[in-house]
């Protein structure tokens, strides 16, 4: 920004900070970035008649220490906001797999059956996902990483777990283990349990994306099955409706955030 708009006191402090950073061997581009951010901050304070002495009366090192503390607090907040995704994604994935099966079981009286291998693999992969995600969060919180590297590391456990879930799904047909069957009353109870968990999880996470996805994915096919449309047209319209429902929810959420 144009530093001629700043007071002489602000400009003196910026020059002191630039000189200090230069003496510490900081690259010129980084020095200018810090100086520009400080200039913008001081300009806003002067325009709002806030005392700039709370910054300019400090030494450059004290000011940088304050920036480091603020960065740590911001990172901790970001880690907390990311950490809630771990149980949300895991539990949400399990609910997504079970909800459609038990819903059809309740509506059509179908017997829902899961192999012992599928249940065990889901539990094991889920535990690995939690452990991997916890390690990734701790690693990113202890190391200075760029935004892209941080998100890449945090995404690794989710990607590996997804691949393991897919592998377990295909292996389920080749591994012979006993079946756990769920009949009419069990379907109703299990449907009630997963619905309540989905609602409680959404209230805790302050987002209703999971119930919306469950509705968008499962109900359009059930509705279209009762129409005279062909199977291919039903599948096509089902996908369109799913995308429209989820897209509408995301759009409304975005609008609400913009207004807030």
TrEMBL record:
UniProt keyword annotations, A-Z: Membrane, Transmembrane, Transmembrane helix
Top-level lineage group: Bacteria
Keyword Membrane part of the UniProt annotation: yes
Transmembrane segment boundaries: 82-99, 111-139, 151-170, 182-201, 208-224, 236-254
Domain HAAS transmembrane region: from-to ranges: 96-215
Listed name of the protein: HAAS transmembrane region domain-containing protein
Biological source species: Oceanobacillus jeddahense
């Amino acid at each position: 920004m144009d530093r001629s708009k700043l007071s002489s006191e602000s400009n003196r402090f910026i020059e002191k900070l630039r000189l200090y950073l230069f003496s510490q061997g900081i690259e010129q581009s980084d020095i200018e970035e810090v100086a520009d951010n400080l200039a913008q901050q001081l300009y806003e304070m002067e325009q709002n008649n806030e005392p700039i002495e709370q910054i300019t009366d400090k030494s450059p090192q004290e000011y940088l220490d304050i920036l480091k503390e603020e960065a740590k607090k911001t990172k901790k907040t970001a880690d907390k906001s990311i950490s809630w995704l771990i149980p949300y994604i895991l539990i949400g994935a399990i609910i997504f797999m079970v909800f459609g099966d038990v819903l059809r079981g309740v509506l059509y009286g179908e017997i829902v059956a899961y192999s012992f291998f599928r249940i065990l693999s889901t539990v094991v992969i889920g535990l690995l996902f939690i452990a991997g995600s916890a390690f990734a969060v701790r690693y990113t919180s202890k190391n200075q990483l760029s935004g892209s590297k941080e998100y890449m590391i945090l995404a690794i456990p989710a990607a590996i777990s997804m691949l393991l879930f897919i592998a377990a799904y295909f292996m389920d047909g080749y591994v012979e283990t006993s079946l756990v069957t769920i009949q009419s009353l069990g379907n109703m109870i299990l449907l009630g349990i997963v619905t309540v968990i989905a609602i409680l999880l959404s209230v805790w996470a302050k987002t209703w994306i999971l119930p919306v996805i469950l509705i968008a994915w499962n109900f359009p096919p059930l509705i279209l099955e009762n129409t005279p449309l062909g199977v291919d047209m039903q599948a096509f319209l089902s996908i369109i409706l799913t995308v429209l429902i989820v897209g509408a929810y995301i759009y409304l959420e975005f609008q609400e955030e913009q207004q807030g």
